[in-house]
Every structure is written in C-alpha cells, then in structure tokens.
Amino acid sequence: MDATIAKQVEAALEYVAWTVLWNKYFAIMFLLLGLFLTIGTGFFQFRRFGDIFYNTLGGLFRKNKKVRESKVSSFGAFATALGGTVGNGNIAGVASAIAIGGPGALFWMWMAALVGMVTKMSEIVLTQHYKQRYEDGSSYGSAAYYIQKGLVEGKGWKWCKVLSLIFTVTMIGAFYFAPGPYTIVEALQSAFKLSGTTAIFCAIFYTGICYVIVLGGIPRIVKFAERAVPVMVLCYLSAGVLIIVKDIPAAIAGIKSIFYYAFQPYAAVGGFAGVTVMKVVQVGVARSVYSNEAGWGSSPIIHAAVDVDHPGRQGLWGAMEVFMDTMVVCTITGLMVIITGAWQTGRGGAGSVGEALGIAFGGYAPHMLAFFMIIFSLTTTTGWFSYLESLIVYCVQNKPHEERMKYVKFVRYTGPMVPLCVSMFFFYHGTVPSVVWMMLDIQSALPVYVNVIALTLLSPVIFRLVKEFETDYLNPEKAARQAAKAAAKSGTKATDEN
C-alpha cells in the first residue's frame, strides 16, 4: 500500500511540475523572455562579454578604483549570490535533471543560461534602480520593490500589488523549503554508508554551523561567501576537469550525446522510461532556473545592498553569476555523470555525482563528495538568509527600524530549524532525490511566473538604463567623441547658414 501511495504522490508531483507549472509553453515563454531582453539590449551579453568579465572577475586581478563606499562590496554581493546559486542545485540538481531528461537536458540548461545572463542583469538593474534606502544607511531591494515602485506607484496599476504579495510569500516559502540538510544526509549516506541516526546527527551539526554564520547577519554571511566560494568552485572544477582529461574519448562521446539528445527522444535507460524532446527542454530550463536563479528574482536581493555609480554596473555581476554557475560549474557536473555513465541508474541526486567521483578517484570519492556537498550547501543556505532578511523587511517596511529588526532577529533564530525538520521528514519517509527535486521545481516556478510578468512590463526601463550605462559608462570616450562631432557639425552648419 505504501509503495502504491508513493507512486501516486510521485505521479501527482510530476503532473504539477511538468504539466501545470513548467509546462512546455512556459519553458518556451521563459526562453522567449530572455531572447526579448537580449534583442532589446542589443545582444548585450554577447557583444559585451569582454566588458562583463573585465568589470567583474577581471577587476580582482588589478587595482580597482572604488566607485562608491558601501557596507557590501560588489564582489561580496557577487560571492554571496554565486554562493546562493552555486550550491546543491549544481551537484544533486544537475544530476537529477540528467536522470530525468537525459544528456540533452544539459544543452537546454545552456540555452536558458545564455539568455538568462541578460535576464539576471535586468533584474539587478531594476533592483538597484528601485531599491529602498532606510534611515540606518541600509538599502534593500527585490522584485517586490520594483513591482511596487515601478508598476503600482509608477504606473498606478494597483492590481500589481497581488504580484508583490505572491512573489514575497513564495520566496519566503522557497527558503523554508531549502533542501540543504536533506542533500547533506543523502550525500553522507551515499558516501560513507552511515546509519540513519548518524546521518541525521550530521544534518543537525550542519544546521548548527548555519546558525554560527547567520546570527552574524549580512556582514558575516558576505564575509564567509567571499572566502568560501572561490575555494569551493576551484576545487570542484579541478576534480571535474581531471575526470574529463582522464578519458578524452568518453568526454567527446559525452559532449556529442548532449547535442544529439537535445533534439532526439531517447529510449528507456536504466531505471526510467523514455523521454520526449519537449520533456528534455522543460527539465533543462526548469533546472537551469533553479541553479542559476536567472528570472527567479532571488540573487538581485543581495545586490541591492551595494552602492554603485549606475545600476548597470552591478548588473554586470549578475550576468557573470549565470555564466559561472551554469556554463562552468553545471557543465562540469553534467559531464562527470555523463562521461562515467553514472546518470544511467535513473536515481539522480548527489549519489550519482558520488558514483562519478568514485569511478575516477576510487576511495577518495566519499570524502570529496562530502566536502563539496557541505560547502556548497552552506553557501546556498547562508546566502539565502541574506535574501530572506530583505523579504521580511519588505513585509514590515512601514514599521520603525527597531521593530523591523525584531522580525529579522526572529527569522535568524528560528529559520534554520524549518529546513532541518522538512529534510528529516523526507529522509525518514525514504523520499527519492528526484522526487524532492520535483517538489523544488514546483516552488521555484511560482516566483518566476511573477517575475516574468514584471520584467516584461518594465522592459522599457531596463532598455533605457542599459543603453545609458553602455553609452555613458562603458563608452565614455566614444560618447564624448560623438558629442564633439555633433557639436562641430552643428557649428559648421550654423557658419554655412550665416
């Protein structure tokens, strides 16, 4: 009976995730939104990729002039947001996407990310433009703020208040439904064959570490991210590159299968049924959004804390986040499970990545998987706390500062316990990782729906700000030359007329 109920629940979740929310029309619509923003900004992420890198990660290798002092640096916001995106979604999530949708899912993750670079940049530009400053010097922003200021107040569209409410409630729910402790339990059990009780104690210990970081507020979260994120990304990439280099023929075959199965349905493999091409697109786009958060409206929240000379400058960091998250880190995970054949079990989750590491590194694999999962999950969970603080402040924005801080402190003290309890429930009921990730896909879709509407309605503001930034800040010399030419032409014309 239990097995029958479990199958019914799984079927219901799959229906809601892939037929109702992440349906084929919405996946295509999301790609079209990215394409619309890409065209509207003149293919900015492709034309200006050199400038994006130069003004973000490239700045770490040279002495950079600070544009404006702020409590959170641009790199601090980037590290925190990247830590929030480069997390268990890049390990367990990508492996589950390929388990459900096959190798072709990775191709559609790439497509969603390429247009998602400008989508996330647009979110951050709007967040910076419409952010709220408070009397204590802090500044907060999110999709809820730019919906409120840009649409409700700016356009007088009162019905958009519903969008702000849906976004805020679903994003708070996304935090409390975070799978950090669950993925820790799953990874440790897979890696070290721990008993259920021992694995749960490890999850409790993990939650305790979260408390140590979170109780220090946004400054401690940002400081942790600045130190942990570069180390974890470099270590993970090194492991992935070694797997690829060790078997070049398999790597070439794996890359071919990504492109082939992106447009071809494949027959049943391992423990699951065959998949249509449309299902591959749906899974790839959904998991791309969950991983890099482009269009979700989450990462821009921490970027609102940075003071810059123009919203477009901080937007460049968002584009780089998506590139690093999906085009680099997710690609490494995908290639690992495809090259080693670990994806063919159909199980998904961190266990598939553990199997891939085991094939390449033998007995060291369990320790490597445990390290990656703990660090990746920590940066995600703590990064999301900085988002949650802004969401809570939005809910009580009209209250005095002292009262707002009471709500923030309440969340800091109680927040980590809820994901732990949810994870223990999944664990004790033996929930399969791919089912957990379907549930996450469901809750991630709702704020995306809201954000797609907001970005579309505010697209004229995005295009104006991006053009202004490109002209006045990326091309100041060119703009000056054009102005001088125009002035000279005008002078010549006036002389001729005289």
UniProtKB/TrEMBL annotation:
It is a multi-pass membrane protein. PROSITE patterns: NA_ALANINE_SYMP. It is found in: Cell membrane. It comes from Cloacibacillus porcorum. NCBIfam families: agcS. Belongs to the alanine or glycine:cation symporter (AGCS) (TC 2.A.25) family. This is Amino acid carrier protein. The chain crosses the membrane at residues 25-44, 72-100, 106-126, 159-178, 198-219, 231-252, 258-278, 322-343, 369-396, 417-440, 446-466. Signal peptide: none annotated. It comes from the Bacteria. Its main location: membrane. GO terms for molecular function: amino acid:sodium symporter activity. PANTHER family: AGSS FAMILY TRANSPORTER, SODIUM-ALANINE, SODIUM_AMINO ACID (ALANINE) SYMPORTER. Keywords: Cell membrane, Membrane, Symport, Transmembrane, Transmembrane helix, Transport. InterPro entries: Na/Ala_symport (IPR001463). GO terms for cellular component: plasma membrane.
